[in-house]
Write a structure and sequence with these properties.
single chain, about 325 residues, alpha+beta, 4-stranded antiparallel beta sheet, binds (3R)-3-hydroxy-3-methyl-5-(phosphonooxy)pentanoic acid
């Protein structure tokens, strides 16, 4: 009972920040994302009587992660199995890139685990299950440009594809300004913001219009407009984070350096827009025409430690190339 799966990380384009149910990870708002081909995780899961306990090795290091064991428990309960599992997971991007990879990690774990147990789940069911590990992981199941719909309950809250990875001429320069782990987790951060930021209710009111604009830009394949809307939403979400009590300032000096540089490149006709999730690193979204110039210019900024150019990534998929 062994299976291996690969999934891409994704960036929020219209971001999810706030939950109505912490245990089920039901988000307050719909969100739209783009998978990143350059940020992939491969995971092998084997359930067997040979294992007395669950084990998890991440990038070659034995790791204790209660969220992984909790997710295995959830899958075992669906499959009526009591077998323990060996899990090995490897990120196909440098650990120093500073990406926590919970989206790619839980999407790959879900697909590999569900396949190993023979659960026979549909894409929507896999997405729902991945959501229980990490909200954004649900969007890495369909891949491409995906929308996580905030339904009223578990059954109605899963992601579906809005556009395939090659439908838009969209590129992302993944810019690392520091590999420091974030001090406040997304889970804790979104709770604090929803409870304390006076701007959060305004965000909830503004989101339906932004989501409609993003769906329309994706349907019309307007890559630059998609990138622009994602920057607008980034600033809105971070305004809510910064005005939380205590304030959540995820940005580092290098983050601001990149934001300013991207705006000045735009004044010179190099089209790029920033997108920042809950951390200091920056996604610079653009089209294939400007991607090379942006990559080169961003690499030369003093505060930037690493730059990766990515196309949009595809859906989570199984593979026979097992890690053990
Ligand atoms: O998947 P989580 O629970 O780590 O939440 C991630 C939320 C953001 O990345 C900040 C935004 C988003 O929509 O991906």
């Amino acid at each position: 009972m062994k299976a291996t799966a690969e999934a891409c990380a994704n960036q929020g384009l219209i971001k999810y920040w706030g939950k109505t149910d912490e245990k089920l990870r039901l988000p307050t708002n719909d969100s739209i994302s783009c998978c990143l081909e350059a940020l992939r995780t491969r995971t092998t899961v084997e359930f067997s009587e040979r294992y007395a306990t669950d084990s998890f090795v991440l990038n070659g290091t034995p790791t204790q992660d209660p969220r992984v064991v909790g997710h295995l428990d959830l899958m075992r309960s669906l499959g009526g199995s009591r077998l323990k599992a060996r899990v090995e997971s490897r990120n196909g991007f440098p650990a120093s890139a500073g990406y926590a990879s919970s989206a790619s990690g839980f999407a790959a774990l879900t697909l590999a685990g569900a396949t190993a147990l023979g659960l026979g789940l549909s894409e929507a069911e896999l997405s729902r299950l991945a959501r229980r590990g990490s909200g954004s992981a649900s969007r890495s199941i369909p891949g491409g440009f995906a929308e996580l719909v905030a339904g009223a309950d578990d059954a109605h809250t899963f992601a579906r594809g809005l556009a395939g990875p090659d439908d838009l001429d969209f590129r992302t320069v993944v810019v690392t300004v520091g590999a420091e782990a974030k001090k406040v987790s997304s889970r804790e951060g979104m709770r604090i913001t929803a409870e304390t930021s006076p701007l959060f209710p305004a965000r909830i009111g503004y989101l339906p219009g932004m989501l409609a604009a993003m769906r329309s830009a994706l349907a019309k394949k307007e890559a630059a407009r998609v990138a622009h809307l994602a920057e607008t939403d980034t600033m809105n979400m971070h305004a809510c984070m910064i005005t939380s009590e205590p304030p959540l300032l995820y940005w580092a000096p290098g983050t601001i350096e990149v934001i300013r540089a991207v705006a000045s490149f735009r004044d010179e006709g190099v089209v790029g827009y920033v997108s920042i999730d809950a951390g200091q690193n920056v996604f610079v979204n653009t089209t294939s025409r400007h991607a090379g110039t942006l990559e080169e210019r961003l690499r030369s900024l003093p505060g930037v430690s690493q730059v990766l150019l990515s196309r949009p990534g595809g859906p989570a998929r199984t593979t026979d190339e097992h890690l053990f």
